[in-house]
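Feature request disguised as a bug report, sorry. It would help if multi-protein outputs had a clear separator. Right now it looks like this:
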Amino acid sequence: MNTLHRLSLFLLALLLLGSPTLANNNTSVIQIAVSDLEARGVETNEALIISDRLRQELIQTGKFRVMERELMNRILEEKGLAQAGLCDGANCGGETGRLLGVSVLLVGSVGKIGSLYTISVRLIRVETGEVSFTTNFDYKGDIEDLLQKPIQTLSKRIVDATQPAPLPAKVEAIPAKPQPPPSVSVPMSGKTKWRLSLGAGTLLLASAAFYYNSRVLFHNDQAMKLDPLYLAAGTSGDAAQIYGQIKDHNDQATSAALIRTATGALAVLCATGFSLTFAF
């Protein structure tokens, strides 16, 4: 095959892989080549059918640009390779992937042990040649059922393994609770302080004068009640005892009267001063 034909195959591959229609204007679309799954315990045609269905499922996700099987075979044949040796030795994911113009190779197998079918796939990064993802799906049933849920499940796993993790949801900041404006303390003037002090003093002293006045009235009343008993006392001893009680009440009444007079006078002075704070 001449050089012109080789160049046309290479340009055709680039055209198909770079087509805007296939890319769907999605920057996260990955170029991938899906090798025919190796048949192990199943018919080769059955493995090819399952491989084609896997390619279709990957295309339908919109996350991959899948190289056509025929185009992949033509390029490999041009280089003297075949899909059977796609991942043998040093060719695995390196030169072969760069030759196909893809970033990821998918290789694997479909096999059967007893009544159990198993599909195994591996993703190989062309840039490094490393296996970036591997998964298996086991199924008991008829082989035709592999074309449904098993292939869909594998396709979803491949998408999840190759797509970048979603960005965390933006958390809306909770608005801060408005704070009340700081209280402004207004300093008291000297006159205001005196007014408050004199007003409080007037109330306290007046209350004290009222209390001691009630004590004067109480002791005087008790002394007056004892006078008839003193006059009617039968013995000098009883008379002396009653006289002592009368004298005690009179003394306490006198003391209370003195305190009442003093607190009353001070209350009058405080009230006068309180009034004067309004006059000047």
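(second protein starts here, but nothing in the output says so)
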Amino acid sequence: PVLSAIYLMSYKKYVMLFDIDRCIGCMSCEVACKQEKLLFQEGPRPMKVVRFEHFDENPISYFMPMNCFHCDIAPCVYACPTSAMTKREDGIVYVRDNLCIGCKACIVACPYGAISFNPATEKVVKCDFCMDRASIGLLPSCVTKCTTNCLYFVEVEEDIRQRHISKYIDPYNEFRLQEV
């Protein structure tokens, strides 16, 4: 069943944070994810490390791990015709393999490109925060294998967006993000 965002706010929620300044693009998180999900080297990538480059007088390059954001209101959950894409009470969005028919509607619906099609099984695969590991108190595989410790898996009790909204409203009635 699909749970509303208001209903989810009363539960603890898991989130993954990453320190973009520490990531060196070693891809150890990608490899750990593939091993955990028993995926082949040339196949779907539930965890992706994306390289961003800016060429100017001071060229800069940085890496950013990209996995499922486990949206509060997940478009993939609503797009799935068989309810194979499901959201748990703790916010984890996952695929129920026995219900997935491989129609790829969730892939089209995901605004972040976080869902991949596995041609070997003809089903979709995505990051589920290694929910089997999380349910027994272990960290996701990508977090444990990160060589620079730039990935953090935390449990929060509040809506994260509320932490970043300033308590002071400017004269134009707009919200400003809190400066760090």
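Even a blank line would do. Unrelated, but nice: Helices lie at 5-8, 28-36, 75-79, 105-109, 131-134, 141-145, 160-164.
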